[in-house]
Design brief:
The complex is a heterodimer of chains A (242) and B (379). By secondary structure, chain A is of the alpha/beta class. Chain A has one domain: Rossmann fold (3-Layer(aba) Sandwich), CATH 3.40.50.300. Chain A is built from seven helices and nine strands, in the order βββαβαβαααβαβββα. In chain A, α6 links the parallel β6 and β7. In chain A, α3 packs across α4 and α3 runs parallel beside α5. The radius of gyration of chain A is 18 Å and the shape is globular. Chain B is of the alpha+beta class and 379 residues long. Chain B has two domains: 168 residues, no CATH class; 158 residues, no CATH class. Chain B contains twelve helices and ten strands. Chain B has a six-stranded mixed β-barrel with strand order 2-3-8-5-7-6. In chain B, β6 and β7 form a beta hairpin. Chain B is elongated, with a radius of gyration of 29 Å. The chains are: A alpha/beta (242), B alpha+beta (379). The interface between A and B is medium-sized, with 34 and 27 residues.
Chain lengths: 242, 379
């Protein structure tokens, strides 16, 4: 039975790549609950299965076995088309390498999820500009990604992940391409802007300096969650002001 | 998402322009070579096409094209005239002679001997002089290219003379006759006059030109003539095609042009195909991000096809523009006169370009469709 307020329910989820002698067990029975309104971090060494778990949760990869419910839906039971629609409406992504489209301005990049949902270009870009303004990036709205610093690019990526008001934000190493100070600033922004009642945030990271921002930290190794740590999240000053 | 696709396309200007250039170059090469090929291959039938008064050409059964003729006997003309369905029939001489100019320069010329009474087969367009002036003694009409060969730099005028078979040829007109395959000057004279210009030959009757009676199909008359006389009878279109096919089968021209066309096709397919493929592969991560964000495969395929259509359309338009400019320039040049850029070639090249960009984008689309969106999580 899945309780209300659960963003991700995972029970004995496995993921196996390949077959026969070349089989790789990337996930070996993952049990994890992620609450709405919380920021959960998946941490662990390279190859521990963090990114695979993130991919399975977001429906980018199918689980081999186990029960996985995300925002009340089982990704494995959705058709390919429904899965795409589910992702488009409910998920926001922040990638390690930002993955901004280099040909588009910051505002246009932010507008992409809205465009994918069918919003008209002018309306979507205007919304993107507004959203960038809320993240203190109004003056860079018409800059191309190549004209932005790493921190600015990640803020644009964050705006893109949030602009369509998704219920689940997933971040893959959002600070690893940034220096310590910029990474901390991005995390402050992410924590302030993303974490809301009714929305969950999952962050895959190696970066121990940002652990303070987590409500829950899942330590992973060899495809398993080795420990689950409740944390007292550092509340960023912006949020305190509200 | 269309503007996203277009911005992605033009962002890498080097690739964008190389794609357009490759398609423009290939479509220019295709259109240009096919048009020249058609232009050259229709030249053997120029003198057939220029005869608009008659619909049926009667010839020796072993005559296969217009430039190699075995003469008929004079009475064959009367045999043709007696076939039911033939309204009228006239003789036509077509052969080669040698003409010499006043300054000693000479050339082999194509001599057309027209029926004295009717002048059937006379040039359609006169630049100087009148067809009726062929009634004058030793009179002949020469085409513009021939005139300018014998009288270079001189204005087109009547009254000049040439020499053929030690006889005077009086130029009474300059015509705009279609360019022949061999680029020889074309002279029109009376049938009775032609004998004097070419020298002693037993028979001059190269062809009998005939006209069916009103309402009688040309094919029926041709069959009737063949049945009644044992001669070969062809409509103008059939005889033109015979001449075209003869050169197609018996010369290296199609091989030569064929190779160029194949090269154009290979260049036009491989280079844009490869560049477009590389362009897509380099953007795979971006497409992966779009897929992860929730852009459907169908939408991404649409984006790629739009990109392909834009480069294909732009390259094609540029190629056709260059081709049109090329032919606009060469049309006024005497040796290449009459070689035009047919709209059918333009349309056919358009279809080829569509196929090429379609193929290139299909290969690229495949890579994107099989792309796991999870690739975006691999740093």
């Amino acid at each position: 039975m899945i309780k209300d307020g659960i963003a991700v329910f995972s029970q004995d989820v496995t993921k196996v790549f390949g077959r026969g002698d070349t089989q790789v067990h990337a996930l070996r029975g993952i049990d994890l609950n992620i609450q709405l309104g919380e920021l959960t971090m998946l941490v662990g060494p390279s190859g521990s299965g963090k990114t695979t778990l993130l991919s399975v949760i977001t429906g980018l990869l199918d689980a081999t076995s186990g029960d996985l419910v995300v925002l009340g839906r089982r990704p494995g039971e959705l058709s390919a088309e429904d899965l795409i629609l589910f992702r488009r409406e409910n998920l926001g992504f922040v990638f390690q390498q930002f993955n901004l489209l280099p040909a588009l301005t910051a505002a246009e990049n932010v507008a992409v999820p809205l465009l994918a949902g069918g919003t008209k270009r002018q309306q979507a870009v205007a919304r993107g500009e507004e959203f960038l303004a809320t993240l203190g990036m109004a003056h860079r709205a018409h800059a191309l990604p190549s004209e932005l610093s790493g921190g600015e690019q990640q803020r644009v990526a964050l705006a893109r992940a949030l602009v369509h008001e998704p219920k689940l934000i997933v971040c893959d190493e959002p600070t690893s391409a940034l220096d310590g100070r910029t990474g901390h600033a991005v995390m402050e922004l992410l924590s302030a802007a993303a974490v809301r009642p009714g929305r969950a945030v999952i962050i895959v990271t190696h970066d121990a300096r940002i652990f303070d921002f987590a409500d829950q930290i899942a330590h992973m190794d060899d495809g398993r969650i080795t420990s689950l740590e409740e944390n007292r999240r550092m509340v960023p000053p912006q949020l305190l002001r509200h | 998402m269309n503007f996203v696709a277009l911005k992605m396309l033009v962002a890498d200007r080097a690739k964008y322009f190389s794609l357009i250039f490759a398609i423009a170059f290939a479509s220019f090469l295709l259109a240009n070579q096919v048009s020249i090929f058609i232009g050259i291959m229709t030249r053997p039938s120029s003198q057939i096409q220029d005869v608009v008064d008659a619909d049926v050409w009667v010839m020796d059964p072993q005559t296969h094209y217009s430039n190699e003729v075995y003469a008929l006997r004079d009475y064959d003309l009367y045999r043709v005239r007696s076939v039911p369905g033939v309204e009228w029939a006239v003789p036509l001489y077509k052969g080669n002679g040698r003409a010499k100019g006043p300054d000693g320069r000479f050339r082999t010329v194509i001599l057309m001997g027209l029926d004295d009474a009717t002048l059937v087969g006379a040039p359609r367009k006169m630049l100087v002089g009148s067809i009726q002036d062929l009634d004058q003694p030793d009179a002949a009409i020469i085409d513009k290219a021939g005139y300018l060969y014998f009288f270079p730099g001189q204005p087109l005028e009547v009254g000049k003379t040439l020499q053929m078979n030690e006889r005077r040829v009086l130029i009474v007109g300059v015509s705009d006759a279609s360019a022949p395959f061999e680029s020889f000057p074309v002279l029109h004279t009376r049938y009775s006059q032609a004998l004097g210009f070419v020298g002693r030959e037993r028979n001059l009757l190269s062809f009998v030109l005939a006209k069916p009676t009103p309402g009688t199909p040309v094919e029926k008359v041709c069959k009737g003539i063949e049945a009644a006389t044992g001669l070969r009878a062809r409509s103008t279109a059939e005889f033109s095609l015979d001449s075209f096919l003869f050169y197609l089968r018996n010369t290296g021209i199609p091989v030569n042009f064929g190779i160029t066309v194949i090269i154009a096709l290979v260049v036009g397919t491989v280079i844009p195909g490869q560049t477009f493929y590389i362009f897509t592969v380099e953007n795979l991560k971006q497409f992966g991000a779009l897929k992860a964000i929730g852009v459907t495969n169908r939408r991404i395929v649409g984006m790629i096809l739009l990109q392909a259509l834009v480069v294909g359309g732009t390259g094609y338009a540029l190629g056709m523009g260059i081709t049109a400019a090329f032919f606009a320039r060469t049309m006024s040049y005497l040796p290449t006169r009459g070689i035009i850029f047919p709209w059918q070639v333009m349309a056919a090249v358009g279809v080829v370009v569509l196929l090429v960009v379609g193929l290139a984008s299909l290969i690229s689309v495949r890579r994107v469709l099989v792309l796991e969106p999870a690739v975006v999580f691999r740093g």
